[in-house]
Amino acid sequence: MFRRLPDTNAGTVDVTIDGRSARVRAGDTVAAALISAGVLASRVADVSRAPRAPYCMMGVCFECLVTVDGVSNRQGCLVAVKPGMRIDTQHGKREVER
Amino acid sequence: MSGERREADVAVVGGGLVGAAIAWGLARSGTRVVVLDEGDVAFRASRGNFALVWVQSKGLGMPEYAAWTKLSSDLWGQFARRLAEETGLDVAFRRPGGFHLCLSEREVENRAAMLSRLHNQPAMVKYDYEILDAGQVRAMLPQVGPEVTGASYCPLDGHVNSLRLLRALQAGMQQFGAGYLADHVVETIASRDGGFRLTTRQGEVRAGKVVLAAGNGNARLGPMVGLDVSVRPQRGQIIVTEKVAPFLDYPIVTIRQTDEGSVMIGDSVEEAGWDTTVGAGVVSAEAERAVRMFPHLARLNVVRTWAALRVMTPDGFPIYQQSVSSPGAFVATCHSGVTLAAVHALVVAPAIARGELPAEQYVPFSPRRFDVSATA
């Protein structure tokens, strides 16, 4: 579905996605990294429980909310990946304590 | 459904919570009703409110209002059940009791003194409330922060999903045959041949009776049918957070978690005319107190803030009155359209259908209480 532009030639970084190691492109956002790693349903909706995926990729739609390094409801499309980052898809409402 | 009805037994002006509750009550008793509403950009307290069904602290200066509020709270359970049965919409009414939290000993003392004055009034309706110390509050609300020094608690307090309530009332009244006319701002009302003629830019509507339930618009409409309705807008500002897993079992007068998980914060009061601008100073003060009450809230993302306009009478109590000069014209207006929705639907609507607001129940709510010459 998605193809890389031919002029991107960045290196890679290692992260975890739902606890599994993944090698993703340096400079990508978390949302782009999830898509390129084949993780399309990045959360379930808080009320309807429907699976949701990154959509606008520019900070507007809030569909790509994920947990980054233990902090819930980050907008995946606005956070760049970093080495060692823990990315977790969301399966319910955030807990108020975290 | 008869969305384009132009003639009815009763025309209700205003499709917010007050108008829709009365129209629902009228329609389900077989009265032919048409509701004339404004458009999407109306000042609509029904879409900006805090959604409490609240009893504690109401009625200082008018014990009849305390009794009226308690009656509505007591009717709310059956009201919500009927709406759910008939429309399939669960308005999420819960009555676990509610808290007013205090952040200093002085606040606790002031709160206790105010409630004592309220309940010592002659003819005050009897119901339970408690002043709790910090330890008692913590036993019921383990999430409160160390600055909480005490609270008042009343088991009659609750809350609801007020947006779904508006939707359920509008769906329900149309199930019972009520007509709903959007974008029908009423320009004039004339009493003619024992009935009323309401003009709008979309044409004319005729009805045997008319109910003014247009919130702050009632100040303009009232004099057309001989009713003096002194209402003014009073601004309140609200913060809403992202949805989180349930953590708050009780509504606080300034903080509540909705059935879908959002946390709403806000109880500000400002005299700002028709200005619905959100002010950073007010919302930051609200947020600061909320975080002192529940420190975990500091971690949550705010997703929206807004300001809405309450419908405020000179003494803050509701107005219900039938016109003397134009019998058949009624006004119903208040700032508690959520709390009082049950009495509006189940008590006021049947009285309007019968054509009379019985004196023993409604005289205290007459706008004549604002007439200096009548009380001098």
Brief digest:
The complex is a heterodimer of chains A (98) and B (376). Chain A is mainly β.
Write up what this structure looks like.
The complex is a heterodimer of chains A (98) and B (376). Chain A has one domain: Ubiquitin-like (UB roll), CATH 3.10.20.30. Chain A contains 1 helix and 7 strands, in the order E-E-H-E-E-E-E-E. In chain A, strand 1 and strand 2 form a beta hairpin. With 376 residues, chain B is an alpha+beta fold. Chain B folds into 3 domains: 172 residues, FAD/NAD(P)-binding domain, CATH 3.50.50.60; 58 residues, no CATH class; 81 residues, D-Amino Acid Oxidase, Chain A, domain 2 (2-Layer Sandwich), CATH 3.30.9.10. Helices cover 30% and strands 24% of the residues of chain B. In chain B, helix 1 packs across helix 8, helix 2 crosses helix 5 and helix 2 packs across helix 8. The longest helix of chain B has 25 residues.
Features:
heterodimer, A: 98 residues, mainly beta, Ubiquitin-like (UB roll), 5-stranded mixed beta sheet, two-stranded antiparallel sheet, 7% helix, globular, B: 376 residues, alpha+beta, FAD/NAD(P)-binding domain, D-Amino Acid Oxidase, Chain A, domain 2, 8-stranded mixed beta sheet, 4-stranded antiparallel beta sheet, 30% helix
How far is it from the N-terminal to the C-terminal residue of chain A, by CA?
34 Å
Question: What is the number of domains of chain A?
Answer: 1
Low-confidence stretches of chain B: none
Q: Proportion of β residues of chain B?
A: 15-25%
Secondary-structure element series of chain B:
EHEEHEHEHEEHEEEEHEEEHEEEHHH
Rg of chain B, rounded, reads: 21 Å
Mean pLDDT score of chain A, rounded?
92
Q: Give the number of DSSP strands of chain A.
A: 7
What are the low-pLDDT stretches of chain A, counting only 5+ consecutive residues below 50? none
The computed structural class of chain A is mainly beta
- Reading off the top of the CATH hierarchy, the class of the largest domain in chain B is best stated as Alpha Beta
Fraction in helix of chain A: under 10%
Structure classification of chain B: alpha+beta
Helix coverage percent of residues of chain B? 25-40%
Kindly report the name of the CATH homologous superfamily of the largest domain in chain B.
FAD/NAD(P)-binding domain
The number of helices of chain B is 10
User: Strands across the major sheet of chain A, in which order?
Assistant: 2-1-7-5-6
Count of DSSP strands of chain B: 17
Question: Can you summarize the main beta sheet of chain A?
Answer: 5 strands, mixed
CATH architecture of chain A: Roll
